[in-house]
Amino acid sequence: MPAPEVERYQRFTTLQFSRPASRVLEIVLSNPGRLNAADADMHRDLADVWPEIDRDPQTRVVVVRGAGKAFSAGGDLDFVESVINDVQTRARAYREARDLVYNVINCSKPIISAMHGVAVGAGLAVGLLADVSIVTPDVRLIDGHTRLGVAAGDHAAIIWPLLVGMAKAKYYLLTCEPLTGEEAERLGLVSLCVPEADLVERAYEVAARLVVASPIALAHTKYALNNWLRMAGPSFDASLALEFLGFAGQDAPEGLAAVRGKRSPNFEDDPSRSAG
Fold first, then answer.
1. Residue 33 has what pLDDT?
2. CATH number for the domain harbouring residue 181
3. Who has the most CB within 10 Å: 37, 45, 109, 231?
4. Dihedral, CA of residue 198, residue 201, residue 206 and residue 209, to nearest 10
5. Whether the Cβ atoms of residue 134 and residue 203 lie closer than 8 Å to each other
6. Which residues, 6+ apart, have CB-to-CB distance to 23 below 8 Å?
């Protein structure tokens, strides 16, 4: 039974909620034994929780972190397989991926992410779209879409070029090369890099500063700044559609098999038949 102060969130069963301080809501991504990989239920919850937070009068600031050894290891492979093989699951996942990005952007409450271990997929989308993103030096931030054989849709097109520039965005999104926390801070992909022992405490410190600020001033500042992301909406919409078109193609099954087999993929699809 959830505590009374977070009872309104009980339907989001893959996420853990608490109140570390007054008016601060903490969300913990939790998928034990799978490094908090986003299965079908977590993917849905990460998309749907933000409008509920926006309506919550008891919440002024949100802190998001991962349980155990990681922030989130990306999409659960069984869920990815369902997206590849089932058109209804693919359509649902497409809607959720779209809603996740726009719901985070449109949530009026400041969001702070605290990332450690590994951050991939839907978890990374939340982590990088957060208003303040905090990482540890050795965290591994990875956009692995092209390795899976699909376009780097998700959050990538809407936020990476704005934060790190087009040249760096193309390099990391095309190669799937991991970024450490130190490198991510140097490039401007994240707000702060702190020692792992200080990660949660630093997130709480930032939350404490924001929770006493004017909610209207913060909400309006966030809304105005996020217009930069809204202007990139057409690029995001196109990238997401192309990503899910790729899930229906022949490269995605090979990419999934390669990830499961811990080997290099052997892609044979003809790029001349693609949208580009």
1. 83
2. 3.90.226.10
3. 37
4. -140
5. yes
6. 58, 59, 60, 61, 211
